[in-house]
Amino acid sequence: MGLSQRSRRLVPLAFLGAAGVALAGCASSGGGEAGGDVDCSAYESYGTHEGESVEVYTTIQGVELDQMVQTTDAFESCTGISIDWVGTQEAETQINVRAAAGDAPELMIIPQPGLLNRLVSEGYVLPAAKSVEDNVDEFWSESWKGYGTIDGTFYAAPLMASVKGWVWYSPAEFEEKGVEIPETWDELLELTATLAEDSTDTYKPWCVGFGSGDATGWPGTDWVEDLVLRTAGPEVYDQWVAGDVKFSDPEIEEAFDEVGKILLDPDYVNGGFGGVESIVSTTFNDGGLPILDGNCSMHHQASFYEAQWPEGTTVAPDGDIWAFLTPKVDPAAGDAVTGGGEFVAKFVEGEAVDAVQTFLSSDTWANLRVSLGGVISANKGLDPANAQSDLGRAAIEILQGEDTVFRFDASDLMPAAVGTSSFWTGMNDWVSGTKDTDQLLSFIDSSWP
Q1: Measured in whole angstroms, how far is the alpha carbon of residue 344 from the centre of its chain?
Q2: Is 197 found in the same domain as 269?
Q3: DSSP secondary structure string for all residues of 131-180
Q4: Helices marked H in 342-419
Q5: What is the pTM for the complete model shown?
Q6: How do beta strands 53-58 and 107-110 pair?
Q7: 146 with 254, same domain?
Q8: Distance from CA of residue 443 to its chain's centroid?
Q9: Considering its fold, how many domains does the chain have in total?
Q10: Residues 138 and 98 grouped into a single domain
């Protein structure tokens, strides 16, 4: 059963957008009449659509869905559009059933480009309006636009984002041990070797957890994706995702070898958990927590791991925990990051539908949503100061960097038989010792459809 929320006024909003437009006191009842002290000047370009209703279908639920509702209160009051937010964990599978039955939602927040591609190929998704594409051209990079473009036609605008490849650590421990944040991959390996001089049964430089229920193994794919992007570059990364470069090709094997220098070394991994063989049984949620107990020094995980630290943990450059990006291989190169994000796609034509899709692709919406906390965006019109944490601000600045190369999580882009199957399970076999590197790469290649 999905969770349907008719957009409503939850709490007073006071927001100063990047353009300096104040949006406050939005009194709305499901997209009702504009009135009260709502300043509609920022919404005039969207027109008036009294009595129109637009469903936005999504996997987002709970508090995050409540926050999405809040971001459109003023928009609804000023345009007369009523937005029906429908959140369910089954959205990714049920969208096919609904679309085939002629009951598609007007809009859907799609969590990965692979699903978008499939829905476009089945003829369910419609090209975005020019106003949406204009926003994306202004506020997003070419690579982000590319994920919403299929066979030269633009369909879906980016929404939110995450940055993977963070290395979490204790600033106090680094200071106490007299070590510094590495600037290159080689320096990270040197740091690891230095810290390993103090290795015991209960302390190792790294703590790693692949455990994630049916999805066990995905944290390992993140390691490999970071290294493919950094050692082979974005063009090879794209060819790898498309299947034109095989896992057993030298460029990909090199990335596995680099990752293996850490994950397969018993002197480097999982003090207190039980060594390399404990990686698969350790959940990704628990993986980094031994840093707080001094049983490890570093943990590789995405920006969302900030929410995994126990209540009372200060995440800041001078706090209990902080993070740095997996370092570059070439010190002269710009930042290269992997990550994820969502895209808003249209299934039903309509002027009100275009207005909502356009608003969700705007800098105004991005600033509103990020100011509520918990998420970031790669929208170039987003003011990093609106992020609710130091890490969020740092991640936004990376995404907005002129030289930053961003690539979507490869396993999310690959065919399911590989990305969410053999790649995941193969990583488990690799660290468990049941497959060596050559066997692993051949196994994954053999599963490619």
Answers
A1: 15
A2: yes
A3: HHHHHHHHHS-HHHHHHTEETTEE--EEEEEEE--EEEE-HHHHHHHT--
A4: 351-360, 363-371, 390-400, 410-413, 416-417
A5: 0.81
A6: parallel
A7: no
A8: 28
A9: 2
A10: yes
- Report how far residue 181's alpha carbon sits from residue 231's, in angstroms, rounded to the nearest whole number: 20
For position 92, which CATH number holds? Answer: 3.40.190.10
Task: Write out the two tokens for 442.
Answer: 């051949």
Q: HSE (CB half, 13 Å, CA atoms) of 71? A: 26
Are residues 322 and 316 in contact, defined by beta-carbon separation less than 8 angstroms? yes
Q: Which residues have CB under 8 Å from 122's CB, separation 6+?
A: 96, 99
The candidate with the shortest Cα–Cα distance to 85, out of 102, 103, 101, 70, is: 70
The residue behind tokens 């089954």 is 90
- How many Cβ atoms are within 10 Å of 99's Cβ, its own excluded? 18
Q: Using alpha carbons, list the distances in angstroms from residue 348 to 77, 159, 176, 268, 427.
A: 22, 19, 59, 53, 41
**Which domain covers residue 275, as residue numbers?**
166-325+414-447
What's phi and psi for 199, nearest 5 deg? -60, 140
Residue keyed to tokens 């919404």? 43
Output the six-digit token pair for 364.
């105004």
Q: Residues 198-252: pLDDT tens digits?
A: 999 999 999 999 999 989 999 999 999 999 999 999 999 999 999 999 999 999 9
